[in-house]
Amino acid sequence: MRAQFVLSEIGVGLRRNLTMTFAVVVSVALSLALFGGSLLMSDQVSTMKGYWYDKVNVSVFLCNKSDAESDPHCAKGAVTAEQKKQIESDLGKMTVVQKVTYESADNAYKHYKEQFGDSPLASSLTPDQMQESYRIKLKDPEKYQVIATAFDGRDGVQSVQDQKGILDNLFGLLNGMNWAARAVMAMMLVVALMLIVNTVRVSAFSRRRETGIMRLVGASGFYIQAPFIMEAAVAGLIGGGVACGFLVIARYFIIDHGLALSEKLNLINFIGWDAVLTKLPLILATSLLMPALAAFFALRKYLKV
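Below the sequence we write its predicted structure tokens.
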């Protein structure tokens, strides 16, 4: 009987404050969709870091004849066979190095033509203008500075470049976008909490006669508060369900179908469905507990039992 009464009171409360309940559902849905999206963005950035950092190389570019005339780093002339042999030997002795690949000027020219053959500059380049280089695969991509310290400024070395630096700029941008999404999410959560508190108070005020009678007959404080708390929890849970739907639909249409980014951007290793599905229980739990706790603390001040 008590459970039936509580359930009936929940239905009455939701119908009486339909507009504010709808506002609570929408605000909770948007804030938790942003919450889930920020979590997935963090997973995506981590996945991309693991994928790309495993592929980055450190390049040691050697001086050629053109560099000897124009680059102060190559003032002593083009790299000699003895210098190349010494550089390769020193690289082989370094514990941070996993693999060393030599690229000749002819191979560098061939690769450039394959990638930028349509560029106007490509027609004016000749193989002797390209630089020889050593492509170094590190055991730990963070150890770039070890290579830079050992070879930067060395005779025959024009420059030492780390591809990780380019990726760091990209990941910095993605992390910045992620933090911006979290800031918007935090504001939306505050708005949602304020709506929940106001909705609960309006609902309690509209039923002040019923709650007064319940006080007189000796009903406990929790028994009086339970319908209001569950109203907020139900509205929040509906919003959480909508947020989960947003995330599933977004993953389906943005990555798999519709925009189909997984097919158009083959170089990006996108997160899988497992990453999305593991976030859904957390979103549903948050959507249930957050409104319930907000309603509980709001009623403690409002309903003096």
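The chain is about 70% helix and 10% strand.
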